[in-house]
Amino acid sequence: MSNEIHQEPSTELILTEVQADGVAIITLNNGKVNALSVELLNELQQAATALSLDASIRAVVITGNGRAFAAGADITQFAQGTPEGEFGLSSPERITQIGTAFLGALNAVAALPCPSIAAVSGVALGGGCELALACDFRLASGSARFGQPEILLGIIPGGGGTQRLSRLVGSSVAKELIFSGRMILADEALRIGLVNRIVEPDQVLAEATAWAQSLAAGPQHALRLAKSAIDQGLEGSLEDGLLLEQNLFVESFTTPDAAVGVQSFLSDGPGHANFA
Ligand code: COA
């Protein structure tokens, strides 16, 4: 299959590129550290929602332009000057708007039906770490740094950090990171299960794209059902999760993937199915 790239109509803050093999690459494009402003988050929500609705998209990579994945919420939006030129925190209404933008964008990323990979170079801090957590996988440069430093600003995470980080690495490790606000390097992130793979700094996007391409060549219907079973199952009790899995297991037999995969196994043995 040719792998031409076409640029989706994109805005300044989010660039979306779709390859012919069904891999989409979302690039955060906001200044020195890709601060996650309300404007960027709104555009990210739109981009992720559009990709969710596009049945030809089979895997998504999210990455950052420049030296950072993302340094978190745009801290300049947390404060506003008074008419007298004094410091003032933003109003509760403005902070609610920021929180709502995070919830909308990161939930839209988490709701991508196909596999998603955060390709992390530089820092993934605060909302940047939370965005990476909304993806299925995190692939990082050996020099990448992760953390939830909100506590150092006297606030707490507002983009899912207390929830998604705890579910991924366990509540005790999550509390240690969130209560201290300390940054960790990629090797520690790998050890605690926050990162899946570490690669050479100049290979981050290439390796993430190659991983996405191998997922895109897989059984897309089965992958979507498996993602759904895991993500939705974790939201409820074990009993409910097992029932959900049972229903989706049965549903998987109604997709073309099952016909291709089972027939291929019975005629050619394991590992020969072509799901393209
Ligand atoms: N929001 C807005 N601007 C930010 C930012 C953020 N989250 N993080 C960094 N910046 C800006 C800095 O103000 C600086 O701007 P300037 O060049 O106009 O002065 C620029 O990005 C570069 O940051 P700087 O601190 O000079 O670079 P550095 O390489 O020494 O450190 C970071 C980079 C990301 C480690 C550091 O800036 C940092 O810790 N940022 C805050 C992270 C954070 O607390 N995120 C959670 C937010 S809730």
TrEMBL record:
Keywords: Lipid metabolism, Lyase. InterPro entries: ClpP/crotonase-like_dom_sf (IPR029045), Enoyl-CoA_hyd/isom_CS (IPR018376), Enoyl-CoA_hydra/iso (IPR001753). It holds the Pfam family ECH_1. This is Unannotated protein. The keyword Lipid metabolism applies. Belongs to the enoyl-CoA hydratase/isomerase family. PANTHER family: (7AS)-7A-METHYL-1,5-DIOXO-2,3,5,6,7,7A-HEXAHYDRO-1H-INDENE-CARBOXYL-COA HYDROLASE, ENOYL-COA HYDRATASE-RELATED. It comes from freshwater metagenome. One of its GO terms (molecular function) is lyase activity. One of its GO terms (biological process) is fatty acid beta-oxidation. CDD domains: crotonase-like.
